[in-house]
Amino acid sequence: MIVILKSNPNREQLESLINWLQEKGITIHTSIGESHTILGLVGDTSQLDIDLIAALDIVDDVKRVQEPYKNANRKFHPEDTVVKVRDTQIGGGTLTIMAGPCSVESEEQVVSIAKAVKASGATMLRGGAFKPRTSPYSFQGLGAQGLEFLKVARQETGLPIVTELMDISQIPLFDDVDVIQIGARNMQNFNLLKEVGKLDKPIMIKRGMSATYEEWLMSAEYVMASGNQDVILCERGIRTFESYTRNTLDLACIPVLRKLTHLPIIIDPSHATGKSWLVDPLAVGAVATGADGLLIEVHNDPAHALCDGAQSLKPEAFDTLAKKLLKMHNFCAALEG
User: Fold this and answer.
1) Nearest C-alpha neighbor of 300 from the set 114, 97, 172
2) 185-239 residue pLDDT tens
3) Going edge to edge, which strands form the sheet with 37-42?
4) Alpha carbon distance 33, 79 (integer Å)
5) How many secondary structure helices (H) and strands (E) does the chain include?
6) I need a labelling partner for 131 at 20 to 30 A (CA). Which of 52, 161, 268, 277 fits?
7) Are domains 2-63 and 83-336 of this chain identical in fold?
């Protein structure tokens, strides 16, 4: 249930309403917008009398929310969420470009790529230290050492780092990571989602390979229900009958999620296609459709990459693409303005 308050509600009446709701066992999330303040009521609201609440002088409207996700629901939080990450942000009209290698292979490699992508306009560095792989014989990442190499790259460039957390036991190692990524395979690892929900850092949730929008948003709800409101959604392609590409990139998710949720939306065209030559057109399409940012894999020597070289761009190709994306973003912003 949501309660929409009138402008400048009487403080005493508001406190009385909140106290009464809390006595009923209701948890209240407050969202303050430009023209209205909204109270999001979480709990058993079936026994609350809507007409009684609506009759209060400070109340403009009361609505029941049917969707099972509450915190992630735009009805609870009409204003877009902007996630702050060091000196940059995700959402709020900016285009965030997260770029870097699929897997961290050495300090020299990740520092070199970080410097290159920053020079091209990337605002965050992505790189895998722990790698979930379908085959147990594939490279699994450098682990804790890879995290240290990422921190060196951050120190050299100032770029915040984004990297994947695979297991609850790894959480202490991620204390100095800027954005924690929850991969597609862990999207419904609910115990893990609860634990990262207790952390004071942004969490980016990749969509599961066969997940519906509601299932995806419910994963975000797990994190938010545990207290962490800085959640980012990342579309990385879904499994369909088509086998030519690695996955099928669902750009329709952007306008759909804009309607359903206030959370920022990132698109990963690299994992979606598995082919480097498809990254450019789909990244452009994502920006044109209104994505808040992109997650793009860049490697200085894709042919010899230890992980996903076929979908990685060389630094010079990324430079061309990044400039194109920023122009596209500015053009779309001008059209909307």
Assistant:
1) 114
2) 999 999 999 999 999 999 999 999 999 999 999 999 999 999 999 999 999 999 9
3) 27-32, 37-42, 2-5, 59-63
4) 6
5) 10, 14
6) 277
7) no
The DSSP string of 190-233 is HHHHHHHTTSSS-EEEEPPTT--HHHHHHHHHHHHHTT---EEE
184: nearest Cα among 86, 295, 282, 67:
295
76, 74, 50, 180: which is closest to 128 by C-alpha? 180
Q: How far apart are CA 198 and CA 174, in angstroms?
A: 13
- Rounded to whole angstroms, how far apart are CA atoms 236 and 332? 23
Write the class of the CATH domain 83-336.
alpha beta
Q: What is the CATH T-level fold of the domain 2-63, as seen in this structure?
A: Alpha-Beta Plaits (3.30.70)
d(CA 30, CA 174) in angstroms, rounded, equals 30
The residue extents of the domains of the chain are 2-63, 83-336
Note the pLDDT of residue 137. 67
Report d(CA 163, CA 112) in Å as an integer.
Answer: 17
User: What does the alpha-carbon distance between residue 136 and residue 101 come to, in Å, rounded to a whole number?
Assistant: 20
Q: What is the pLDDT of residues 259-295, one digit of tens each?
A: 999 999 999 999 999 999 999 999 999 999 999 999 9
Closest by CA position to 254, among listed 207, 223, 286: 286
Tell me, yes or no, if the pTM score tops 0.85.
Answer: yes
What are the pLDDT digits (tens) for 106-150?
999 999 999 999 999 999 999 999 977 777 767 777 899 999 999
